[in-house]
Predict the structure of TetR family transcriptional regulator.
Amino acid sequence: MTVEVGLRERKKAATRAALAAAANRLAVELGVEHVTVEAIAAAADVSPRTFHNYFSSREEAIVASIIDWAERLTDELEKRPADEPMWDSLQHVFLDSVDESADGHARLIRQLEMIKANPAVIASQLSALDTMRRRFAETIAARTGTDASRDLYPHLIAGAAGHAVKTAMDLWALGQHDRLLRDLVAEAFALVRAGLPEPGRS
Amino acid sequence: MTVEVGLRERKKAATRAALAAAANRLAVELGVEHVTVEAIAAAADVSPRTFHNYFSSREEAIVASIIDWAERLTDELEKRPADEPMWDSLQHVFLDSVDESADGHARLIRQLEMIKANPAVIASQLSALDTMRRRFAETIAARTGTDASRDLYPHLIAGAAGHAVKTAMDLWALGQHDRLLRDLVAEAFALVRAGLPEPGRS
DNA sequence: CGAAAATTTGCAGAGTCAGCAAAACTGCCG
DNA sequence: CGGCAGTTTTGCTGACTCTGCAAATTTTCG
């Protein structure tokens, strides 16, 4: 994949990363509504017009890190042993991606709070997660011999896994700091793998 | 809930409905990018400024029918017998909402195609579906004695059910016209309820 | 009817975003 | 090197979105 290593490609990647980082940082620091494209561009040392060559909206830049995360996770998923049960692979990949340091937790909470505060950013986040889900479905289809354009399975399991992680994070950020995020994610996976049986029924 | 039946309330609801209908119709007919707020407002016989009193973005108006759908479904869900297994209630409510007429199918396909064609509308759709998911989670929590602000269960099952329906629809619209949409939805539910076992494994 | 409350509207202003063409830059071959 | 070809950056412009504010209009209710 990443075979193009010319100066040109590296510069493009760097510009994109700088814009995404600036957008995210400013959104967290100042609040989304106080961040303009002009300010993001200035922070990344490019013209406002260039910003729009990389991102089609301010919100897209703010949540660009989700796409990067998704790319890393897809790579990880592809590296899992081919004979490992699909659910185990997914759980492994997602659990490994959770930063358990105190600093990581603090950052994550700030992220989620910033996103939650603005409907347009929420929509962009969901969009990014949906893109991630589609990538996952492709990878899963390839590994399980299913067809992402015809079979429900790869989409359903990718969606279920992604949603389990999102739900665990959202609930955790909402006040379950007494529990480890890791454990909450694991519990969500367990529930979904069990077919979500109704609690308190035989 | 809907106890306010004064002229004022009825007019507001009518204006909102007219704007949503106009926005959706124009988006399907002309394509999303060729629809301006001005045109929507004109079609609903109000000023452009009034449009923004009802919807905070063009896309929100275009997908407003999803919110209406969600409201109807939540009502249906609340009406299900309290002792019915949760999964059965959900499956029932969603399956009943599928319009199986040829005309309904054609409309649904045009809808999905219109949405798919524009990233901003996709994001708004996901946002609306997320709102629906949250409503469902509240209702489910109330019925299963769980707490939507602490427990994973209501969110996970609401998300799984909603995503099952969305996946079935998307795949169906993509070319599975040989199969009944109803059957695809039922199959998706069955897979999720079974915990998404890997196909072709013992 | 007439006052109080809510809704609609016009206007102004800040901001987003895309198309276009010129300027600046990078890669590469002679 | 030098310079051409292909890419990226940039400024400019125009259409459009969206919000705040205050005036005008409409509805409600005593």
In short: The mean pLDDT of chain A is 94. DSSP finds ten helices and no strands in chain A. Chain A touches chain B through 48 residues (CB under 8 Å). The two ends of chain A are 50 Å apart (CA to CA).
